[in-house]
């Protein structure tokens, strides 16, 4: 029965996709929404059941479905695996996913393509669970690609809007770049280790020479940067906000983007032996975190603030992975799922109330009419800043602490410094967002006909659950409470465990920095004051100079290459060749035509000429 | 004796040949053709082909040339050769080809010196001899030849009919 | 002095050459036709010569058939020339160039 559990976890949402997709339009609206949510809820429950199986805590519960690839000595069975790591992911994914599905029932209630929405969302859930529960790197990759597809479908859900369609395409293409690296790494692994199953890879980790291992892990990490929107492949995530807000909450905050982090954790036996790669991961994570946070500071679109915030927080998770604290990274992944999803859902509630307006310059003074939403947002914001004893506090603290220790006395200390700076900026930008959206006075540009009303229960209750988790979820990793999740994962990763807590000074420093940020944010932006950031603001807005680089250099190059291909290769060479053949045939015909003079005597002369020649040849041989 | 006959007939044939191709009025060409045919009949006799010689005179000289003359008269045959030669190089080509052809033949003849002719067997070339062959070994072609003649007649009638008449 | 068979053959070749020169050079359809007859006759001569040399009556039988067919050909050919003359009022074969491409 164990095997059935894992299969069903994936099968339920898959069935939901087929039913909602196939019977679109024929089911009543309510049925569609609850069917879509129900399948995910079922997955969550099944995951809960599966987690208690002894095998999961041990070497993992494996199910082989069928012999997928068998080429000589290389074999990859299609298998599922639930061990401690994937159990955590599965629970987070299905749990938060369920809440967001329920929220969607209300949020997307007026939309025409209701069935299509839930079908795609279920497909996404099935794909993400496949990714998480995959028993081999190849199975994971299948899920990886599928979630990429679903992301494209859902970002471009309102495909009639050019911006949405472009954003979907952009997400897919940028992801693809990362996937190319991922594939290369995977192939190298398959060649070197002879297997792609996780069990086998773990065992063979030692067999790789350090440079080879470094190369492979770097390639794999490059793939992770694409999916998890780290530098340099981050550009798709802000644009992905064109999709419906629950999609942003689910895919681009809580689940899909964390797949990169999960993948690193999954292959940690490989990564932990590649010191160079780990350094790169930590550096990229830290840099991205700071980078994205500064950009979030100068955004006007509420959802984009949250998008850049996600990129930034993902950077934190990678820092955790890079400083040999993978359990910290996973813990932050979990708490982030809680509070970021909450923040997005609150933003969605705001949009729902204000008729789709999401530009903060037109909002303001929404705390009174949207009490529940505002509270949720504030709680989520506090968790994000790492306000003491909220969930985010524990996870962020842990990462900073481990970064500090890991980088003690070396260049890696910069990682910690960047993380601290990011904390500050994070606090500022999220406070800014909260103030501009909820605090009085209202914006003079507020839409005339707006009657802000609180969200209906079907939307409010999931927010409530997430709020509770954001506030109290820290208990999973709080030392005082025994840090159950942390210890559970720590054992799994099998690395050295640091018993000593952080030096008090460090913790105080971090907390102070956060509080300072909140204070600054409030002071600077209340009463809708515009804090002029001047040149620095412009610098942030242009992505530290990357935006012109991407737009002009990279896309410009690509565009010119495309133009060259279209104008030169296509028109002159290919079309030219084809037309040339036709022209050649024509001209040959035209030339040969001149033989047909119509004069019998000339024909006779030719015939006689040939005859004489033949005669000569035969007779004189 | 035979030599003299040969030479005379040969000269006649060649002169007639030149006359056929070189004469301006078509009538003169036709009469030159007659000379050729006559010379050839003589040569056939010298080559022990009496029956064929007779046929030559009857069919060719007697019928075909007459037919030509009738048509020439019917058409007032205009030569139309007052105009300049339209096709360039045609004359040159003709000369070259003739030279080439003759060259080849002469070379072949030189390479195999032919034996002198023996005396003809008894009854060779008579109507009897030819007839025997025609009615035994070649009776099928003989019958078909008559069919061909019939077809030729019908074709000539049809083609030569003035247009507009009903079948 | 007997005449070697080669002489007859040489004569035949000469007549043949004269014939095809006429075909190539003359424009009057009737003269061309006569040149063709000349060529046919030259071939007949060589047939007869060989028949004599080899003592085979088949040579003469061939000539017989050649004559028959030549007769038919002349008949039909002249009919055609007449028909063309009726529509085009010319016997210049260069004027019949409808096959020009």
Helix-strand blueprint:
The complex is a heterotrimer of chains A (about 625), B (about 170) and C (about 100).
Chain A: H1 2-22, H2 29-51, H3 54-57, E1 61-71, E2 74-82, H4 84-107, H5 114-133, H6 137-155, H7 162-193, H8 198-204, H9 210-227, H10 236-239, H11 245-254, H12 259-266, H13 268-271, H14 275-297, H15 302-322, H16 326-353, H17 371-385, H18 391-406, H19 413-438, H20 457-472, H21 484-493, H22 504-525, H23 534-541, H24 546-593, H25 600-620
Antiparallel strand pairs in A: 1-2
Chain B: H1 2-22, H2 26-46, H3 50-75, H4 90-111, H5 127-135, H6 139-160
Chain C: H1 5-25, H2 29-54, H3 58-88
Helix pairs in contact in C: 1-2, 2-3
Report on the structure:
The complex is a heterotrimer of chains A (621), B (167) and C (101). In chain A, strands 1-2 form a two-stranded antiparallel sheet. In chain A, strand 1 (61-71) and strand 2 form a beta hairpin. Chain A is globular. In chain A, helix 15 (302-322) runs antiparallel to helix 19. The longest helix of chain A is centred in the C-terminal third of the chain and has 48 residues, at 546-593. Chain A is 72% helix and 3% strand. By secondary structure, chain A is mainly alpha-helical. Chain A has helices at residues 2-22, 29-51, 54-57, 84-107, 114-133, 137-155, 162-193, 198-204, 210-227, 236-239, 245-254, 259-266, 268-271, 275-297, 302-322, 326-353, 371-385, 391-406, 413-438, 457-472, 484-493, 504-525, 534-541, 546-593, 600-620; strands at 61-71, 74-82. The longest helix of chain B is centred in the middle third of the chain and has 26 residues, at 50-75. Chain B has helices at 2-22, 26-46, 50-75, 90-111, 127-135, 139-160. Chain B has one domain (2-80, 123-160): Four Helix Bundle (Hemerythrin (Met), subunit A). Chain C is mainly α. Helix content of chain C is 77%, strand content 0%. Chain C is built from three helices and no strands. In chain C, helix 1 packs antiparallel against helix 2 and helix 2 (29-54) packs antiparallel against helix 3 (58-88). Chain C is elongated, with a radius of gyration of 17 Å. Chains B and C meet through helix 1, helix 2, helix 3, helix 4 and helix 5 of B and helix 1, helix 2 and helix 3 of C.
């Amino acid at each position: 029965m164990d095997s059935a559990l894992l299969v069903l976890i994936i099968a339920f949402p898959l069935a939901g996709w087929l039913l909602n997709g196939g019977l679109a339009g024929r089911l009543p609206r309510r049925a569609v929404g609850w069917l879509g949510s129900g399948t995910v809820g079922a997955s969550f429950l099944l995951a809960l059941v599966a987690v208690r199986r002894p095998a999961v805590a041990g070497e993992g519960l494996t199910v082989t479905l069928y012999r997928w690839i068998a080429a000589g000595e290389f074999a990859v069975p299609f298998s599922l695996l639930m061990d401690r790591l994937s159990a955590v992911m599965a629970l987070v994914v299905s749990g938060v996913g369920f809440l967001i599905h329920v929220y969607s029932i209300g949020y997307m209630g007026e939309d025409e393509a209701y069935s299509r929405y839930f079908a795609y969302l279920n497909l996404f859930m099935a794909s993400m669970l496949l990714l998480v529960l995959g028993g081999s790197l190849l199975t994971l990759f299948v899920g990886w690609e599928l979630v990429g597809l679903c992301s494209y479908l859902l970002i471009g859900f309102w495909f009639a809007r050019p911006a949405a369609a472009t954003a979907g395409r952009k997400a897919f293409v940028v992801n693809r770049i990362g996937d190319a690296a991922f594939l290369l790494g995977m192939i190298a692994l398959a060649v070197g280790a002879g297997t792609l199953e996780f069990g086998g890879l773990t065992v063979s980790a030692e067999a790789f020479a350090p440079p080879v291992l470094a190369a492979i892990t770097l390639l794999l990490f490059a793939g992770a940067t694409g999916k998890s929107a780290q530098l340099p492949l981050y550009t798709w995530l802000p644009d992905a906000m064109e999709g419906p807000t629950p999609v942003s909450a689910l895919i681009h905050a809580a689940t899909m983007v964390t797949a990169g982090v999960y993948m690193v954790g999954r292959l940690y036996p490989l990564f932990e032996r590649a010191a160079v790669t780990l350094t790169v991961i930590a550096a990229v994570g830290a840099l991205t975190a700071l980078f994205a946070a500064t950009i979030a500071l100068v955004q006007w679109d509420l959802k984009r603030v949250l998008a850049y915030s996600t990129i930034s927080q993902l950077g934190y998770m990678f820092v955790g992975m890079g400083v040999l604290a993978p359990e910290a990274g996973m813990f932050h992944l979990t708490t982030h799922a809680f509070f970021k999803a909450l923040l997005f859902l609150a933003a969605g509630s705001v949009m729902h109330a204000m008729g789709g307006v999401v530009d903060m310059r037109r909002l303001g003074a929404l705390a009174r009419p949207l009490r529940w939403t505002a509270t949720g947002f504030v709680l989520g914001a506090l968790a994000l800043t790492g306000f003491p004893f909220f969930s985010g506090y524990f996870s962020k603290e842990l990462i900073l602490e481990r970064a500090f220790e890991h980088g003690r006395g070396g260049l890696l200390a910069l990682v910690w410094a960047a993380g601290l700076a990011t904390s500050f900026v994070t606090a500022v930008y999220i406070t800014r967002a909260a103030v501009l959206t909820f605090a009085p006075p209202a914006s003079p540009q507020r839409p005339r006909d707006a009657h802000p009303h609180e969200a209906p229960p079907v939307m409010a209750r999931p927010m409530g659950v997430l709020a509770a988790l954001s506030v109290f979820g820290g208990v999973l990793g709080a030392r005082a409470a025994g840090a159950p999740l942390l210890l559970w994962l720590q054992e799994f990763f099998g690395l050295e465990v640091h018993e000593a807590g952080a030096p008090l000074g460090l913790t105080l420093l971090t907390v102070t920095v956060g509080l300072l940020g909140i204070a600054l944010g409030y002071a600077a932006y209340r009463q809708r004051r515009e804090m002029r950031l001047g040149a620095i603001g412009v610098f942030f807005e242009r992505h530290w100079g990357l935006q012109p680089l991407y737009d002009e250099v990279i896309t410009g190059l690509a565009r010119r290459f495309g133009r060259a291909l279209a104008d030169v290769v296509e028109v002159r060479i290919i079309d030219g060749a084809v037309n040339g053949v036709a022209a050649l045939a024509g001209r040959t015909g035209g030339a040969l035509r001149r033989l047909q003079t119509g004069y019998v005597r000339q024909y006779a002369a030719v015939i006689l000429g040939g005859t004489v020649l033949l005669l000569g040849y035969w007779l004189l041989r | 004796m035979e030599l003299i006959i040969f030479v005379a007939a040969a000269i006649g044939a060649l002169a007639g040949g030149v006359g056929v191709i070189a004469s301006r009025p078509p009538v003169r060409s036709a009469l030159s053709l007659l000379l050729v045919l006559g010379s050839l009949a003589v040569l056939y006799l010298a080559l022990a082909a009496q029956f064929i010689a007779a046929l030559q005179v009857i069919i060719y000289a007697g019928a075909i040339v007459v037919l030509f003359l009738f048509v020439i008269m019917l058409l007032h045959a205009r030569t139309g050769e007052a105009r300049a030669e339209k096709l360039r190089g045609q004359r040159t080509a003709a000369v070259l080809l003739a030279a080439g052809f003759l060259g080849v033949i002469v070379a072949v003849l030189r390479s195999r010196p032919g034996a002198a002719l023996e005396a003809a067997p008894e009854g060779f070339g008579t109507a009897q001899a030819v007839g025997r062959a025609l009615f035994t070994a070649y009776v099928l072609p003989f019958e078909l030849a008559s069919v061909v003649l019939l077809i030729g007649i019908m074709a000539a009638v049809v083609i030569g009919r003035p247009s507009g008449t009903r079948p | 002095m007997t005449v070697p068979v080669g002489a007859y053959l040489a004569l035949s070749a000469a007549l043949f050459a004269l014939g095809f020169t006429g075909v190539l050079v003359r424009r009057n359809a009737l003269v061309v036709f006569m040149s063709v007859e000349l060529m046919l006759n030259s071939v007949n001569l060589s047939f007869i010569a060989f028949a004599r040399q080899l003592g085979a009556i088949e040579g003469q039988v061939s000539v017989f058939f050649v004559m028959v067919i030549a007769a038919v050909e002349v008949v039909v050919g002249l009919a055609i020339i007449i028909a063309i003359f009726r529509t085009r009022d010319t016997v210049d074969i260069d004027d019949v160039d409808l096959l020009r491409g």
